[in-house]
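ingest -> validate -> predict -> emit
validate: passed (alphabet ok, no gaps, 330 aa)
predict: started
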Amino acid sequence: MKTVILHNEVSREAPKDEQDVLVQIDAVLNALSELGFETFVVPFSLDLQRLKDKLEDIKPSFVFNLVESIAGHDALSHMAPSIMDVWGIPYTGSKTESIFVTTNKLLAKKCMSVAGIPTPAWIYPNNGDILTPMEGAFIVKPVGEHASAGLDEGSVITPKNADHLCRAIKSRQARYGRRYFAEQFIEGREFNLSLLSMEGRPYVLPPAEIIFDNYPAGKVKIVDYRAKWEGDSFEYLHTPRSFDFRKEDEPLIQQMICLAEQCWRLFNLEGYARVDFRVDKMGKPWALEVNTNPCLSPDAGFFAAAQRNGFTFRKVIENIIGNLSNIETL
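emit:
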């Protein structure tokens, strides 16, 4: 059976977070080969006729979707599954609507808020979207980018008033050419919960906590771009992930598992996903965002959680593909 790994185009000048898809391609390609698939690697191009011709020539039974951004914008990642929908080609992972809603963090937060899933209050000045009291610290984040793109220590500020915060948001927008918003900063612990579809139902893999190891007093504890991608930085070297918890953490873990499953149902997720949480000093978890296309690199958090549960990389890929019930020959 033929399959295509569809991925975002990566230039030589691309930042490290975009280049990581090349590592994912190699790992997924090896797993698909072990599973007996004849696999082709195709970059998603905005030259849609050329892309269509390529796929029609290969005639894949399905596409393994690794498109995380288009033309350097994560906010456009929903275009790839949307095009597959139009062309009638099955693909792995969540569907177009789910990716569109969750990639737009503002839209996702509104959905979570309406559904009763606790998410930090936020402000988006461009359309008067002000849903928070002005107190405490805020983190200024891009609306449509993942992988900690556009996040650094300067992202966390304690504004004097709403105008101060709005100016900070607009300054980031002008600097990076992306839409930004501000979210109330939750001082406390950070967790990632990965989910894998098994027999049509979400299975929550062992939760991981990001440890801010030996952070000096006054240093902001966030998983910023340096912590994820700059291998020789203090932040990268001092934010290990841990799967070991104390007995008194069990109620918190169970609460986050329930919230992650609720996010899965709310956004109609498929295949695999990750939900990120912060836990405040009172022990209350807050859902930050939902990632419908988490990194599948062998050294990334998703597979680390899967390994913790005894899964091989091949088994993870097999489960993701097994969610494609509309492929008769699988």
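The two ends are 9 Å apart (CA to CA).
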